[in-house]
C-alpha cells in the first residue's frame, strides 16, 4: 500500500484509482481486524452498511475472514 508520504515523494504520475483502492483496502482490512472479521460490525465501524462493505470487499478482492470470531 502506498502511504501519503510515498505519494508525496513519487516521481512521475500517480495512478489515482490505484491509490484510492489501496487506501480503501487498508481501511476495510483494519476494520475487519478490529471487529474480529464480523462484517456487520466492521460496516458499522466504517459508517456504512454490510451490503456496501461486501460490494467493496468483492471489488477489491478482499476475502471474508473465517474463524476470527471470539
Automatic annotation (TrEMBL):
Coiled coil: none annotated. SUPFAM superfamilies: Homeodomain-like. It comes from the Bacteria. GO terms for molecular function: sequence-specific DNA binding. Transmembrane segments: none annotated. Residues 21-60 form the DNA binding HTH domain. Pfam families: HTH_8. This is DNA binding HTH domain-containing protein. It comes from Pontiella desulfatans.
Amino acid at each position: 500500500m502506498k502511504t501519503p508520504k510515498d505519494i508525496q515523494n513519487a516521481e512521475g504520475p500517480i495512478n489515482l484509482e490505484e491509490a484510492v483502492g489501496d487506501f480503501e483496502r487498508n481501511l476495510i482490512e483494519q476494520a475487519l481486524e478490529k471487529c474480529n472479521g464480523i462484517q456487520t460490525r466492521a460496516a458499522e465501524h466504517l459508517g456504512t452498511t454490510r451490503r456496501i462493505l461486501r460490494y467493496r470487499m468483492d471489488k477489491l478482492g478482499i476475502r471474508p475472514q473465517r474463524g476470527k470470531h471470539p
